[in-house]
Automatic annotation (TrEMBL), chain A:
Its main location: cytoplasm. Keywords: Cytoplasm, Exosome, Nucleus, Phosphoprotein, RNA-binding, rRNA processing. This is Exosome complex component RRP4. It comes from Lingula anatina. PANTHER family: EXOSOME COMPLEX COMPONENT RRP4, PNAS-3 RELATED. GO terms for biological process: CUT catabolic process; exonucleolytic trimming to generate mature 3'-end of 5.8S rRNA from tricistronic rRNA transcript (SSU-rRNA, 5.8S rRNA, LSU-rRNA); nuclear polyadenylation-dependent rRNA catabolic process; poly(A)-dependent snoRNA 3'-end processing; TRAMP-dependent tRNA surveillance pathway; U4 snRNA 3'-end processing. Pfam families: ECR1_N, KH_6, S1_RRP4. Component of the RNA exosome core complex (Exo-9), composed of EXOSC1, EXOSC2, EXOSC3, EXOSC4, EXOSC5, EXOSC6, EXOSC7, EXOSC8 and EXOSC9; within the complex interacts with EXOSC4 and EXOSC7. The catalytically inactive RNA exosome core complex (Exo-9) associates with the catalytic subunit EXOSC10/RRP6. Exo-9 may associate with DIS3 to form the nucleolar exosome complex, or DIS3L to form the cytoplasmic exosome complex. Exo-9 is formed by a hexameric base ring consisting of the heterodimers EXOSC4-EXOSC9, EXOSC5-EXOSC8 and EXOSC6-EXOSC7, and a cap ring consisting of EXOSC1, EXOSC2 and EXOSC3. GO terms for molecular function: RNA binding.
TrEMBL record, chain B:
It is found in: Cytoplasm; Nucleus, Nucleolus; Nucleus, Nucleoplasm. It comes from Lingula anatina. GO terms for biological process: nuclear mRNA surveillance; poly(A)-dependent snoRNA 3'-end processing; rRNA catabolic process; rRNA processing; U4 snRNA 3'-end processing. Residues 21-152, 155-219 form the Exoribonuclease phosphorolytic domain. Keywords: Acetylation, Cytoplasm, Nucleus, RNA-binding, rRNA processing. It comes from the Eukaryota. Signal peptide: none annotated. This is Exosome complex component RRP41. Belongs to the RNase PH family. Its main location: cytoplasm. CDD domains: RNase_PH_RRP41. The keyword Coiled coil does not apply. GO terms for cellular component: cytoplasmic exosome (RNase complex); nuclear exosome (RNase complex); nucleolus; nucleoplasm. GO terms for molecular function: RNA binding.
């Protein structure tokens, strides 16, 4: 079997882009942004001696009187209405604790899930005892942010049939800032796989399910073996998303689809090689630029 | 130390520096994919890796949770191969525990802890090669890692050591100068406001010379700050260039 081996020194740093944005106002912690007192203090700033200082390194963003500094990478900051992919880490009293890549663990209340029976009904004690049968530790779910508590932790809900437990598929973790906010984050791509681009940077790739199994809220799991063609499409999609994320390209349905189409001339495993990643991403970028 | 000339007649130190010169500082940010923030700093022959995780839910004992601010958890360890003589325990010995506490205090003073109540930030520092000034290099590396993680801080924390050798204040001392028995002053400060977050003195120094040595260390911290700031800005511009070109 041929093995691809390369030396660490043969690696190239991706700094070849001679792109300088003069308008971007870069600051580092401790820098004075403005001495004018007429501005409002936003995220990433603090006030000292009547001066506005930056507290993180990044670009200054100004909306009317509000000044914020946006750092390159942070943990996920949840907002109401975001679609997230999350993992259950604890089953508690009438609630599940789930990990959403946020600063604190999020909660999913028993009262904010659709139980297998379907209709809205009162949650009985029976349901409380059965909680671990619905979702247990380690299960993955897709959900929507219902509210944000004062300490920044999130409350989720799955009261729609498109949310719920996730079955067979691949989970990918990317930076939350790379997921573009769209009207929909659930996509059935024509390449034979469905993808959920969670706002929290968790990406779920799964085979496309037919309508009737999809609308159970995911509580009835389909554990049938997935056909080899579908598995290959999913693996290819995974490598494409990974390549885009590594090049800090925004992730949304079109960019993922274009990357998939550009990658078809290579085998799936070749997509992990840096030079092929570079090429696929470059072709995707050109196609996106030609359109927009 | 007989026979070892720490400061020559021409005014050069044992490694060829002038008294006011720092060792060469090289740094890289974002060296780990898994951690939120990470950095690697070389200060002469002292090499340090730092990784920052969080803010995240409190792990381990929940009793440590603070309702009004974030818990900063540090771990300082020295690789077994980092010193001239092989170390037996990389962490957990008295010296490392002391260093851990110092790092924790330093960063509690600089990080805006009130922004993340009930959570925890982990700072892991590993000394890969030790040639004096381990604390200083660790603080500088951890600062870069925290900036890389996007955790809000009042200012950079820069640390620098200084000593007084043969009637001359010298800055950023290496292992030979450190072990020569002369006084050692370690200072960590917020360079913009010139606030001292940690000041430590080993062995004896005459009172009259203290201000000279402190001035030297202060100047050293500011020099370190300008080097770190350049590195951060470089990292920022290259990453933003990548991001901008992909926004369509």
């Amino acid at each position: 079997m041929a093995v691809d081996v390369r030396l660490a020194c043969a690696r190239v740093d991706r700094k070849e882009l001679p792109f300088t944005n003069d308008q971007a106002h870069l600051v580092t912690p401790g820098d004075v942004i403005t001495t004018d007192t007429g501005f409002m203090r936003g995220h990433g700033t603090y006030m000292e001696d009547e001066k506005l200082h930056a507290s993180v390194s990044g670009t200054v963003e100004r909306v009317n009187k509000l000044i914020c500094v946006k750092p390159l990478k942070t943990r996920y900051n949840g907002e109401v209405g975001d679609v997230v992919v999350a993992r259950v880490i604890e089953v508690g009293q009438r609630r599940w604790k789930v990990d959403t890549n946020s600063r604190l663990d999020s909660v999913l209340m028993l009262s904010s899930v659709n139980l297998p029976g379907g209709e809205l009904r009162r949650r009985s004690e029976e349901d409380e005892r059965m909680m671990r049968d619905y979702l247990q530790e380690g299960d993955l779910i897709s959900a929507e942010v219902q509210s944000v508590f004062s300490d920044g932790s999130l409350s989720l809900h799955t009261r729609s049939l498109k949310y719920g437990k996730l079955g067979q598929g691949i989970l990918l973790k990317v930076s939350p800032s790379l997921v573009k906010r769209r009207k929909t984050h659930f996509h059935n791509l024509p390449c034979g796989a469905s993808i959920i681009l969670g706002n929290n940077g968790y990406v779920w790739i799964a085979p496309i399910l037919n309508e009737d199994t999809e609308n159970t809220g995911g509580f009835i799991q389909n554990l049938e073996p997935v056909a080899a063609v579908d598995r290959e499409a999913m693996a290819r999609l995974r490598n494409c998303v990974l390549a885009l994320a590594e090049h800090k390209m925004m992730l949304f349905d079109t960019s993922v689809l274009y990357a998939y189409e550009e990658s078809t001339k290579y085998t799936v495993k070749d997509l992990l090689k840096p030079e092929i990643m570079d090429e696929v991403v470059e072709l995707t970028r050109q196609r996106l630029e030609a359109e927009g | 130390m007989a026979g070892l000339e720490l400061l020559s007649d021409q005014g050069f130190r044992i490694d060829g520096r002038r008294p006011h010169e720092l060792r060469r500082i090289q740094c890289r940010m974002g060296v780990f994919g898994q951690a939120e923030g990470s950095a690697y700093v070389e200060q002469g022959n002292t090499k340090v890796l730092a990784a920052v995780y969080g803010p995240h839910e409190i792990r381990g004992s929940r009793g440590k949770m603070q309702p009004d601010k974030v818990l900063i958890n540090c771990q300082y360890s020295m690789a077994t191969f980092s010193t001239g003589e092989r170390k037996r325990r990389p962490r957990g010995d008295r010296k490392s525990q002391e260093m851990t506490k110092h790092l924790q205090q330093t960063f509690e003073a600089a990080v805006l802890t009130h922004l993340y109540p009930r959570s925890q930030i982990d700072i892991f520092v590993e000394v890969l090669q030790s040639d004096g000034g381990n604390y200083c290099a660790s603080v500088n590396a951890a600062t870069l890692a925290i900036i890389d993680a996007g955790i809000p801080m009042k200012d950079y924390v820069c640390a620098c050591s200084a000593s007084y050798i043969e009637d001359n204040p010298v800055v950023d001392i290496n292992y030979l100068e450190e072990s020569s028995g002369s006084a050692e002053l370690i200072m960590a400060m917020l360079p913009k406001s010139e606030q001292i977050v940690l000041l430590q003195m080993n062995s004896r120094l005459h009172e009259d010379n203290l201000s000279k040595v402190m001035d030297m260390a202060t100047q050293g911290c500011k020099d370190v700050h300008s080097i770190l700031d350049t590195a951060v800005r470089e990292h920022l511009t290259s990453s933003i260039a990548l991001q901008d070109s992909s926004v369509t």
